[in-house]
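Lab notebook, bench 4. The sequencing result for the construct came back, and we need a structural model before the next group meeting so we can plan mutations. Quick request posted to the team channel:

Model the 3D structure of this chain.
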Amino acid sequence: MDIKSLETVGLSPLQAAAYALLLEKGAINPADSFETLGTTRSNAYKVFDRLCEIGLARKEKQGTRTQYHLESPTALAEHVAFLRNQATAREEIVSSMMHNLLNTYHKHTSQPDTATFTGKEQVREAFVRQLNLREDVYFVRSYSDLPVMGFDTMHEIRMTPSTHGLKRRAIMGAPTQGTHIDYAPHKRSNLDITWAETNDYTAPVEWSATESSLLIVLYSQQPHAILITNPLIAGAFLQLWHMLNNLLQQQDLHKRLRS
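Done. Here's the predicted structure in token form:
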């Protein structure tokens, strides 16, 4: 049994070694195996007791001796699922706290937090980090997003805010003339669109802002992103976004497409 693989799925090095030995023997007395495991007798009992808690072993008394027997390895899958659920729960707790944590942090400093990202996976991570702030999103869309990042990735990014009850407000180029727009899916995903002339914004750069962050994404062959976390900078961009949004909503194009 590859002990490193057992460590990868969440067992400590000593737990992995003990479980590999149990797989080999079927039943073990820690008093006979602690030297093989390279630990003390008391630690050997503790690690096999831990394997019992996980469900990988069961403990039996045979007179004065304690024997540990192998249980079905399916318990390992259940243990991994438990660890995954635990990690997800921790992520949700951190995400729910992040807004207040950032507000408190920025009361003591005006210095922005800046992070850069390169490559599709890292740029996706930049979006995720912004979305994890659990704040409404205001963005200027670039139609270079799908060709560079792919439909599935961008669909996940676009839909995530609505799963947390957040709103999205977008400024984007209008579709070709005569195209019928079905706004029902946009309503379901909490998206409100302000239309601009198709050729007014063709840059391969997306601007995405929340109450405390500004994300700038360059959709080049090797995409790049800069995430700035600072309420002052984010607030300044949101003022510009609202100024542009108000002007565009007065244009005939927007009124016609939203009528």
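The chain has eleven helices and ten strands.
Will bring this to the meeting.
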